[in-house]
Design goal:
alpha+beta, four-stranded mixed beta sheet, 5 helices
């Protein structure tokens, strides 16, 4: 009798354990608090964000202002080329004209905004003309084109000390890819010597940008 009784007690205990486990498991599953989405802390959100959209989260990013078209290393920094940092923009003029069209006027205003953003830069205004006409006349025309852009930049608060004026020649601050003569002004933006340019990643637009680089 005692063995039968012990067996019944053991069976009842096991059945009770199974029932209790089932009850607590059901309670856990149906507890809505466990399904409430926990909002990540602001600090965590900032760490996982990518503020400059370079593919490196802020937690690991050592260069938070990387250019969008630069090749980025594992620390989120631009890979430098070793070349001095230079950008340029071409302002076009009509034949024998030195006044700015509406479109080019707007583009010079954009240059002024850029110059204010990067106060460490200097801007070389290189006046150019087409090959028609004699050199004396073309030099005066190139100078008038420089003056049109120079005056507008001064009016927008750019210091004259940052604006360098040059007439087109092969010895001045022309980017090497600009060849030939044209009805234009070439505005060359140059950073101090210790600033270095960065490697640009290739995409379908890269070759097009080589033809018309701008900032």
């Amino acid at each position: 009798m005692s063995q039968t009784t012990n067996f019944k007690h053991t069976l009842l205990n096991r059945l009770l354990i199974v029932l209790l486990c089932g009850f607590f498991t059901t309670a856990c599953i149906t507890d809505p608090e466990l399904y409430t989405k926990q909002a990540s802390s602001p600090e965590q959100s900032r760490d996982l964000a990518d503020i400059d959209h370079d593919g490196i989260i802020n937690e690991r990013d050592q260069c938070a202002d990387s250019p969008s078209d630069a090749i980025i290393d594992n620390d989120g920094c631009s890979e430098l080329t070793g070349r001095p940092k230079v950008k340029y923009r071409i302002i076009h003029f009509g034949f024998d004209k030195s006044s700015l069209s509406t479109r080019e006027h707007k583009r010079v205003l954009e240059m002024a905004t850029f110059l204010k953003k990067y106060p460490e830069t200097d801007l070389y205004l290189i006046g150019d003309t087409s090959e028609e006409g004699n050199d004396s006349y073309n030099q005066k025309l190139a100078k008038r084109r420089i003056n049109s852009v120079h005056k507008l930049l001064l009016d927008k608060g750019i210091s004259s000390e940052r604006l360098k004026q040059e007439i087109y020649s092969f010895k001045n601050h022309l980017p090497p890819e600009l060849k030939g003569r044209d009805r234009r002004l070439i505005a060359v933006l140059q950073w101090p010597a210790h600033y270095k340019d960065y490697q640009v990643k290739w995409n379908i637009f890269t070759e097009m940008k080589k033809e018309q680089l701008s900032y």
